[in-house]
């Protein structure tokens, strides 16, 4: 859903506004594609332990997706499953699942099963934390690319900081992630906008005074 535009954006030429709207649409498309790709990656990781729907729910939970984001991501992920290669990869992962072991059908075996489940849960918690970090990094890289593009569109109409702030507002990036996107984009723009000191020649150094000839030694009597 498009975000409300600030007043200064309405003062831009029509062609620039259209380019801004198109850039926002492309950014949303790229973010949705990133979510779908990462969700399928999580489904693949968890395939031996849980079905597709449960893995998708885990993704929605750890990434705190909105209802709209969840619907788009789920649709794209299901669409990707129609790819024979993707389906074959997930089927292969399922065959590595944890089936029932009759060794656990005893009191001692039940205790071992409980311990195993606890270890498994702790392992999955670690997986989710690592996976969330990797996914956020992928999303930030996507935001970085499209925020730079918006800054380029607005180059003749707004300072770069205003362009980045507009991108963050339009894409409704959470404050925790917005800071990372803002800093990374400005760090890249610094290479373009800051004066370059390296390679500049300073004023010529003063020439050293002419050396005086050494006094001749006098004759000995």
What does this protein structure show overall?
The chain has 221 residues and is mainly α. It has one domain (12-190). 69% of the residues lie in helices and 0% in strands. The protein has helices at 7-10, 14-46, 52-63, 67-81, 84-94, 107-153, 160-170, 175-193. α2 (14-46) crosses α3 (52-63) and α6 packs across α8 (175-193).
* Alpha-carbon Rg, integer: 30 Å
Q: What's the helix count?
A: 8
Structural class comes to: mainly alpha
Q: Span from first to last CA?
A: 108 Å
Count of individual domains: 1
Are there runs of 5+ residues with pLDDT below 50, and where?
none
Q: What proportion of the residues form beta strands (DSSP E)?
A: under 5%
The overall pLDDT, averaged over residues, is 80
| SSE sequence, one letter per element | HHHHHHHH
Q: Write down how many β-strands occur, each being a DSSP E stretch of 2 or more residues.
A: 0
Which sheet architecture does the biggest sheet show? none
Shape: extended
What is the helix content? 55-70%
Would you spell out the secondary-structure blueprint of this structure?
Blueprint (H helix, E strand, L loop, with lengths): L6 H4 L3 H33 L5 H12 L3 H15 L2 H11 L12 H47 L6 H11 L4 H19 L28
Helix pairs in contact: 2-3, 2-4, 2-6, 6-7, 6-8, 7-8
Features:
221 residues; mainly alpha; extended
Concise summary:
With 221 residues, the chain is an all-alpha fold. It is built from eight helices and no strands.
């Amino acid at each position: 859903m498009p975000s409300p535009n600030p007043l200064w954006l309405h003062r831009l030429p029509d062609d620039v506004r259209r380019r801004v709207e198109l850039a926002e649409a492309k950014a949303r498309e790229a973010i949705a594609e990133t979510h779908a790709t990462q969700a399928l990656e999580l489904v693949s990781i968890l395939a031996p332990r849980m079905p597709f729907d449960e893995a998708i729910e885990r993704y929605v939970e750890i990434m705190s997706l909105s209802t709209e984001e969840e619907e788009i991501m789920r649709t794209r992920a299901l669409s990707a499953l129609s790819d024979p290669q993707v389906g074959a990869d997930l089927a292969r992962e399922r065959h590595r699942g944890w089936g029932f072991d009759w060794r656990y059908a005893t009191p001692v075996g039940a205790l071992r099963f409980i311990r195993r489940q606890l270890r498994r849960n702790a392992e999955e918690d670690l997986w989710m934390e690592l996976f969330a970090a990797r996914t956020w990094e992928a999303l930030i890289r996507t935001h970085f690319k499209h925020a730079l593009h918006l800054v380029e569109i607005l180059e003749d109409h707004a300072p770069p900081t205003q362009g980045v702030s507009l991108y963050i507002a339009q894409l409704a990036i959470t404050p925790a992630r917005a800071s990372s996107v803002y800093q990374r984009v400005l760090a890249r723009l610094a290479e373009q906008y800051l004066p370059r000191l390296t390679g500049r020649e300073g004023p010529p150094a003063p020439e050293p005074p002419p050396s005086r000839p050494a006094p001749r030694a006098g004759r000995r009597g």
